[in-house]
Specification:
The chain is an all-alpha fold. It folds into 2 domains: 1-31, no CATH class; 36-99, AhpD-like (Up-down Bundle). It is 72% helix and 0% strand. The chain is built from 5 helices and no strands. The chain has helices at residues 10-16, 18-31, 39-53, 56-68, 73-95. Helix 3 packs antiparallel against helix 4 and helix 3 crosses helix 5 (73-95). The longest helix is centred in the last third of the chain and has 23 residues, at 73-95. The termini are far apart.
């Protein structure tokens, strides 16, 4: 199911909801632009989110962008660890609901 070629089908969404797609891309660009937080760190944050949501498209896109922004193997490995810790932490804290 996962194939980067599928992203070419975004044109179908754009053709049928052009204003929404235009707004999405503008928001995406603004959110990931260099600002108080440098692009490299924003892309590493995007990677962490992608690892926890397990989106292969986002993992590939944002890992590549983080690398382009200068992210090292050590930074990427720590990003993986942070994502894993948050996912595990969510399982632990949500597990408390089983003891109501």
């Amino acid at each position: 199911m996962y194939d980067m070629k599928n992203l070419s089908r975004l044109k179908v969404i754009e053709a049928n909801a052009p204003e929404a797609v235009k707004a999405f891309w503008a928001f995406d660009k603004a959110a990931l632009a260099d600002g108080a937080i440098p692009v490299k760190y924003k892309e590493l944050m995007a990677c962490a989110v992608a690892f926890t949501t397990q989106c292969p498209y986002c993992i590939e896109i944002h890992s590549d962008r983080a690398r382009e922004a200068g992210a090292s193997d050590k930074e990427m490995a720590e990003t993986v660890a942070v994502a894993a810790a948050l996912r595990a932490g969510a399982a632990m804290t949500h597990g408390t609901h089983a003891f109501a």
